[in-house]
Amino acid sequence: MVNPSLRGGFIRKPNETMRLVVTTFIGIVFGFFLGVSFPTLSLTKMNLPSGLFPSIDLTYIEDKYSGLSTRAFFKAFSSLRGNRGDFNQVYSFNDTKIWVPTNPRGAERLPPGIIASESDFYLRRLWGLPSEDLTVTPKYLVTFTVGYSQKKNIDAAVKKFSENFTILLFHYDGRTSEWEEFEWSKRAIHVSVPKQTKWWYAKRFLHPDIVAAYDYIFLWDEDLGVEHFNAEEYIKLVKKHGLEISQPGLEPNKGLTWQMTKRRGYSEVHKDTEEKPGWCTDPHLPPCAAFVEIMATVFSRDAWRCVWHMIQNDLVHGWGLDFALRKCVEPAHEKIGVVDSQWIVHQSVPSLGSQGKSEAGKQPWEGVRERCRKEWRMFQDRISNAEKAYFDSVGIDPPNSTVR
Q1: Membrane-spanning regions, if any (predicted)?
Q2: Domain assignment of residue 113, yes or no
């Protein structure tokens, strides 16, 4: 039998055991709080030799982990208290699970109240309050595709547009700084890409969400005489007659291709005409109605949203587009027209032809003109094939079709 006195060194009194347990628990709790609080210590304020951290930005470490330590502290503290409500509110704000399928594509993770899905060409200051940037908010946009050789013509044209218009110049010859001789040029928007066309620019810089701030968009060439044109009066007539797509009437003695666009001296607006026999299969279809040319076209905001999507990326001259504009408004023969009382002169300056390249013995302008004609045929084929594919997919006969 073992002597109890021999085991006395291995047996502790109950109160000593309890003190050991309490001390151990307090040590664990103290160590835990010390651990979660340690990252908040400012290493940059500690007097440590720089050689210990040769390639570490101590300020970055402090900033990176300070938020984490605070969050961990609150989480641990709330857990001990049995009350996590305050922390959950902070945490859910910093780690939201937002998904709004009705937002624009790609922006589903954003709260709807922060989304700015549209833009504009309004110039902004680099100082002051944003709400005080604009003394005038233009309601209309006018674009010209220009070369510097036509500067006098463009200067005269721009002066026909009031401060209600944003002026946007597309420079196909790469010369922009020379235009600073005109005072209005300092307030205009300049986009320069050499040897490109009006429709190339329009597809890339006039997305409907970019020009959504404007009620009407003017897409004009550079060779237009505007002596008899007033932009504000033009807008009034377009609204009065409900035109979604329009153009000014053309002086009949120069640069005229179609009867539809010829100015009539006895009316404000016309929406149809008579053409040569056999040219119009229907009096409500181009070129007898629902038709304007692409040299000086004016679109409403809604019409432009449709037309922009119809512009083909590789068919840059736009030939044939004027015959298809009717697809973007309904009824087209009532909402497409020519404004007679505000008329222009088409000067027919072949400036863009000089931007071509001589090939196979042809002059630069000949290659450009040949490309225009090819694009027209290609566009017609694409429209026809796309419509046929659609009607086949839904199992119905195309309009005016008598056979499947």
Answers
A1: 20-41
A2: no
